Amino acid sequence: MSFYRLFAYVILSLAVLLFIVLPSVLLGLIYSSSGSQWLVNTAKTWLPETVNFSRFDGRLADRFAFDQLRIDSAVFSASFDSVSVAWQPWSLLDSSLVIENLTLGSGEIRIRQGQTAADDNSPSSLDSISTSLPIAIDLKAFELRQSWFFINQLPQQQFAATASLKVLQSGQLTLRSLQLQHQYASISADAQADLSFPFKHQLNTSLTLHSPDYPGTRLKLNSSGDMKNLQGQFDVRDSANINGSFSLKDVLQQASWQADLSINDTTLNDWLSAFAINGLEPLRLDGNVNLTGDAAQRVQIIPDLDVVYAAQDATMTGNITLEGQQVTLKSVTLASPERGELSINGRVDDLASPFIDLTASLKQVLYEQTQTTGKIALTGPLDRLEISTSTETQIEKPQSATINAKTKALLESSQLTLETIRITDTLTEGEISGSAKINWQQQIQVNANINGELLGKPFSLLTDVQYNTPYVDVSALELNWQTAHLSAKGRLSPGSKVSVKLDITDLAGLPLPLDASGELKLNADIEGDISSLWLDMKLNSKQLVVADTEFSNLALQLTGAPDNHDLTASLTAFSTDWQLRTRNKLADTSVSIELKEWQVDHESLEPFSLKKATAIRYNWQSSDLNISDLCLQQTGENGAACVAAQSDNGATELTSTISGLNLSLLNPFISNAPVTIEGRLTADSTASWNWQQNKLNDVDVNTSVEKLKLSGLDESITFDEFSVSLAPNEDRFEARLLATANEIDLSTKGALQLDSLSAGSSLTGSLESRLGDLGLLEVLSPAIASAKGDIKANLGLSGTLNSIQVMPNINANINELVLAETATAISDTQISLAATDASNNTFRLDADGMVGSGKFNLSGEFDVNSQQLKAQLNGQQLQLIDTPKLAVTVTPDIKVTLKDNRLSVTGDVIVPEAEITPPQLSNVQRSSSDVVIKQQQQPKGRALETFADISLTLGDKVNVDAYGFQGQLQGKLNIKQKNTGVARGEGEIGVKTGTYEVYGQELIIERGQLVYNGGPIGNPSLNLQVVRNLPKTTGNPERVGARVQGTLQEPTLDLFSNPPMPDASVLSYLMFGRAPNSPSESSNLELQAALLLTGDMTDSFTQGLKDTFGFDEVAIDSATSDVNDTSLYIGKYLTPRLYIKYGIGLVESTSSFFLRYQLTDHLWLESTSSTESQGGDLIYSIEK
């Protein structure tokens, strides 16, 4: 064989071996389980010892798996129960690695601290990064099952993840999806990114926080851009309502960033509770915050927020700058229209060792009943901080005054020295001054000596207290001011004690943050040292008023150690005697109470008492509450009310039962209600409260009332069935109501489904009711004298618990309805109320019927969304009022509109007939001048504007008998009223015929006008002329008369005659039809007539003098039946025990003086002197 042939043979053999035989063998190996097993076992011997697995299974050509795979290195280790791979090896021929599935079973990953490699990703090298791959990678499905992560010494974390991604050869990454499950959070993301500089990307991320330590929160984050210009948006929901945007520029050069936050009506209490800040009123933020920063570590924060705390609004503005180790505050202001303004300026240098230079300015800052303006300055390092204050405070209690205070203090590392304390008041020009020192270097020592006079009362504070573990020496502790005296003295050590006394004669004399009055006495003996105290404390008060709530006979006694003591308490409040006796034990994180006695004794009920001793335990660290059966039972009754609680794992199971409880016990507490209640209540309920979520779960309530009876003044209704239930229904709650009363044909059924029991829970439901006898209205309201008819109602319910939407469909037929006070009779009336569309946004009301013998029509629509109302009332000859004193028939044409928070009432009202006879003034009861009527303050809201414009026309049959006038009126009047202002009128009411009573005589009205010129409708101007025609005899005038002008409430009178005569003669002819007999009789005659004229108005006159000048008594009286003895008396209490009264004659020149002095509770001294006599008496009173 030639050389060339041999060479060709060898080359061909090698080609067959390399390109046919070896690939065939390799393919045969990887496409068979045994071959794949051999290759892996052979390769295992070449792998480093840090990679191990227990078993291999599958084919390397498509699917294979490892069991118990473990990888170890100096800084990293990982172990998994299993690892499975499904891939497409043939895709490598297309320069692509396609992995169908990569699954890592449960395991653990540990990252340990090792040597730190040099940082090759410095900013100077990042811009040179250019990523390209030899092949593309397509990981279609990745799964990491629940595994534990251990990072250095940090707490272990548990994760699970799924992902799908693709990386092109050009270095472009597509993250199709990423789902990361942590024990306390869940993250999902998708992204597009370029792995080469400038790293252009688009990222969408969603995070859900479900940690037991923090409120549940959802965060969405979207970002796009590159290292030169990056921007994004974020949105926070559930625990907060915050959204905003951010941007980052020139990361590698002069980096700068900006963020804008929009905080939308977010309540912070849940987050504050997560950091153990509890017990606060709701704190809400609403507004914007702008943040900017740069590479020089300079951060600027500019807030513009509305802050709402305890229902008080405030705004927060200013500028906060962080630059290196310095924080600068510029006009950081919290301002409230109602509470004043607090503004802080200054800076804090060197945060590692701070130097403070801050000034806080207060401007009309309100707290309770005080208003403060001034400054507080802080200067120096923390170990030598100078504090100075200068404030001016307006106080209202114990009396209105201005308090000026100046202090200078030095706070050192172990001592606080109040070098100067100076407080003055502008009311009495009083001043208190002194100094104080608190030292805690080796032992705690408190010394203070402050004295002077404040608000006209001596003030003194003297303290000398020393604490040297474990003993306390109280050498002196004395505080005296106004009505309070506090003293303490002694030593806390074995065999010794400290005695404390507090005596407040009247709380009203102290500037307390709440309204309080009455006495308070405290006596306490404290024995032992600070580590083992023993208390014997008594607190008493005979009469106490706190926030308008009266307490009496308060007695509280505590005996024992602070952590193990007996407590007894008794008091009277709400017409009820309360008694309590407990044994209390306090631990570091819990309190245990043994409730031994609890008695509630209302003056109108048999007493309630504890059925048996009850144990109560609460752990505030784990939020566990446990209550053994706590049962209250009424004397003479078998029924009882019981409650129990059992906690486990942060959840408390609550159980309550009520068996046969007599509902009549509610009547004393609803004494103002028009009905009384009878019946027996039976109820069972269970619930679960989750303390971590602050959520009520698994509620099941069943309530029924046996023989429920409602009784009014003359009528009563007995229900055949009445029950309410609330129970879980699959994943929702369902509430049901059932009430039937056959005697009035009443049937009510209701059902409500709720997603949860939180305020924002969505709900759906319905209520169907039929009332065949309106007699129930007579029972419920004393204003209804008689009612006959029927009502059918179907209500659809939707929305949420705090915003319920009602879709009504109500139809009523009124055969007869009579109002008790006005005797208004409504009959033959049909009323309907229904939603006009499926959106339940518009309601329509229609009513047609009769009032008296006249017909009326009422129609209207109300749009819920726009809060707009349109209504129209028309009628003919409606007998609106039909009483003996007042009878009015009207023909109305009225329009009512509500738009843009403005309610308008316009139209015409014709009064064809009326009989008006008001009560006499002597029947009117007036409150004493010292009576103060207090009303419950309503929350401030947007006030509804009102406007009325009514045209009133009087017909031919309007008769009035009032204030001396009796006659028939006619005319037209336009009445206008805005908001709560006085109704005013324009127009004229004329007297067609009538009489006017002057000096007790009825005179004929020749002409008369009631003129309204825009003044109050109840006080028109008068233009009346009355006359008395006399017989034509010798000496008599032809006629006498009087002109009445002024106003209805303050008329003026002029007398006239023809021919002219003196007023005394005219008055005599008006009253008696004859001339006066003598001058003295004429004078008496005038006085008698004047007194007769003002008889009904005397109370108003004397009350006005009392209110104007602060007198306790003003009266016109006579000691005898002789009118000449008539005098004006004025009386006044100079002190609570001394009363004087002075009288001056109205006819004759006389005077009198009266004095009364109370010597004791039962003994009085009285003295009387006048121009005619003198005398004195000693009076002793015995009460029976």
3D structure, described in words:
The chain has 1184 residues and is mainly beta. Among the domains are: 44 residues; 109 residues; 108 residues; 83 residues. 8% of the residues lie in helices and 63% in strands. The chain has eight helices and 72 strands. Helix 6 packs across helix 7. It is extended, with a radius of gyration of 46 Å. About 4% of the residues have low confidence.
Q: Which characteristics define this entry?
A:
single chain, mainly beta, 66-stranded mixed beta sheet, 6-stranded antiparallel beta sheet, 8 helices, TamB_C, transmembrane helix
Total strands: the figure is: 72
Low-confidence stretches: 15-22, 115-124, 921-941, 1078-1083, 1091-1097
What's the total helix number?
8
Q: Report how far the terminal alpha carbons are from each other.
A: 156 Å
Oligomeric state of the chains in view: single chain
Q: What's the overall average pLDDT, rounded?
A: 82
User: Structural class of the helix and strand makeup?
Assistant: mainly beta
**Beta-strand level of the residues, as a percent range?**
over 45%
User: Major β-sheet, in short?
Assistant: 66 strands, mixed
Summarize the amount of helix as a percent range.
Answer: under 10%
Shape: extended
Question: Radius of gyration, rounded?
Answer: 46 Å
